[in-house]
Specification:
Blueprint lengths: L2 H34 L11 H34 L4 H9 L3 H13 L5 H12 L4 H14 L4 H13 L3 H14 L5 H13 L3 H11 L6 H17 L3 H13 L8 H6 L4 H24 L1
Helix pairs in contact: 1-2, 3-4, 3-5, 4-5, 5-6, 5-7, 6-7, 7-8, 8-9, 9-10, 10-11, 11-12
Length: 293
């Protein structure tokens, strides 16, 4: 995050704090006026308590307006950084309509709007339409242009994964987490999946444990806790294995979310491995549910 954005967000939080303070002063002033000074004779002049309450209310209203103005400014700056059509391309990616997203993203690159986010989406779109050479070139360019941006290495990992270079993909995600350890939990989960596919079980389990420290979407949670439960069980940590199994069962609905992703990966070795893994998880869930009945 740039210094300017940090200052702007600090202003937003400061405005929010002052707004809360002003409203608190208003409430206290009203309470004092209504309950503590109610025996005071009526007067045409405002009491000090009411004057303080009105000052607090004005401060709160002013800070709310300032806060909304700063948030609007930040959103406007962020929108300007992305090329026209970026939002539409993002929606196409979410709907798995990768071929329709590519022209919009290529247009963004042609206009010089090569942000890490644009290059990440373009890499994903190329990879999921079989254009692996273009996907890799785009991922490499993201790292070249933004070597200190974690998103560049997440983009690079996506390119490597589509080419079945799982160890390189896992290493790219590890680099992303080194640059910014506060990555969302699913990034650690993806690193674990890739490490496991590459045969690096020890590093995969460490990544899964890091992922488990975050709130995970169910689609990631069910896979992470399946692997953790097996690892704890093999190590003889039965209490932790049972706890991980319970978390896996709680996220069982997440298996369904992988079905559309499986269709896009159907012809890849990663997709085949994922299909077998999901089948094993479904079987483990059935066994665990039967044991608990």
């Amino acid at each position: 995050m740039s210094t300017r954005r940090m200052i702007a967000w600090a202003g937003v939080f400061t405005a929010a704090g002052l707004a809360v303070l002003g409203f608190t002063v208003f409430v206290i002033g009203v309470i004092v006026e209504l309950f503590l000074l109610r025996q005071r004779p009526l007067s045409d002049e405002l009491s000090p308590a009411m004057q303080l309450a009105l000052i607090g209310l004005c401060l709160s209203a002013l800070m709310v307006l300032c806060g909304f103005a700063l948030v609007g400014l930040l959103l406007a700056v962020q929108t300007r950084r992305q090329a026209p059509g970026y939002g539409e391309a993002y929606r196409f990616i979410q709907q798995m309509q990768f071929s329709q997203a590519i022209p919009l993203l290529e247009q963004a690159v042609a206009r010089g709007r090569e942000t890490p986010e644009v290059l990440m989406l373009l890499t994903t779109a190329y990879a999921n339409t079989g254009q692996l050479a273009k996907a890799q070139a785009t991922a490499d360019r993201a790292v070249q242009l933004f070597p200190l941006d974690p998103n560049s290495y997440i983009t690079l990992a996506n390119g490597y994964r589509q080419q079945a270079s799982y160890e390189a993909a896992a290493s790219a995600l590890q680099r992303a987490t080194e640059l910014d350890p506060n990555q969302p939990g699913f990034v650690y989960a993806e690193q674990g999946f890739l490490d496991l596919t590459a045969g690096n079980r020890a590093r995969a389990m460490e990544a899964f444990r890091r992922a488990a420290q975050h709130h995970l979407p169910e689609m990631y949670s069910v896979r992470v806790y399946y692997h953790l439960a097996n690892d704890y069980r093999e190590a003889g940590n039965h209490a932790e294995a049972e706890a991980a199994t319970a978390r896996m069962l709680a996220a069982r609905a997440g298996l369904d979310a992988w079905e559309p992703i499986l269709r896009t990966l159907d012809t890849t070795s990663y997709g085949t491995a994922l299909r077998y893994e999901l089948a094993n998880i479904a079987q483990a869930i059935a066994v665990a549910e039967a044991r608990r009945e």
